[in-house]
């Protein structure tokens, strides 16, 4: 992403927040831009705000955990994933993303278990 594109995007997000400060999607998408720019702390802040505004939107929770992992905050990341698994027990996405982080840590057996659970859940749909 070019700097001028990011600046324009952030200006648009600020305008959107002024118009609808309670819209979780704005914070989620701004968090995505911060994430792309490797500003994981600001991304995490926006994912947290998005989750507060719309607790049922699973991807804000997942992305918060991933951003925490990218910041090197392993304990918070794993805790966020465990909370996500409890909050969304019938969704495969958190198991899959959690499995990816476990795989990155070379915790292969645990990762496989999460991937298998994600597949099992998706097959039931």
What would your notes on this structure say?
It is a single chain. The protein has 125 residues and is mainly α. It has two domains: 1-77, Serine Threonine Protein Phosphatase 5, Tetratricopeptide repeat (Alpha Horseshoe); 89-125, no CATH class. The protein has seven helices and no strands. The protein is globular, with a radius of gyration of 16 Å. The chain starts with a helix and ends with a helix. The model has no long low-confidence stretch (mean pLDDT 96). One of its GO terms (cellular component) is mitochondrial outer membrane. Belongs to the Tom70 family. This is Rhizoctonia solani AG1-IB WGS project CAOJ00000000 data, isolate 7/3/14, contig 12218.
Tell me which oligomeric state these chains represent.
single chain
CATH topology of the largest domain: Serine Threonine Protein Phosphatase 5, Tetratricopeptide repeat
Extract low-pLDDT stretches: none
Distance from first to last alpha carbon: 36 Å
- How many helical elements? 7
Kindly report the name of the CATH homologous superfamily of the largest domain.
Answer: Tetratricopeptide repeat domain
Number of domains: 2
Q: What fraction of residues sit in β-strands?
A: under 5%
CATH class call of the largest domain: Mainly Alpha
- Give the ordered list of helices and strands: HHHHHHH
Mean pLDDT: 96
Membrane topology: Single-pass membrane protein
GO cellular component, one term: mitochondrial outer membrane
Family: Belongs to the Tom70 family.
GO biological process, one term: protein insertion into mitochondrial inner membrane
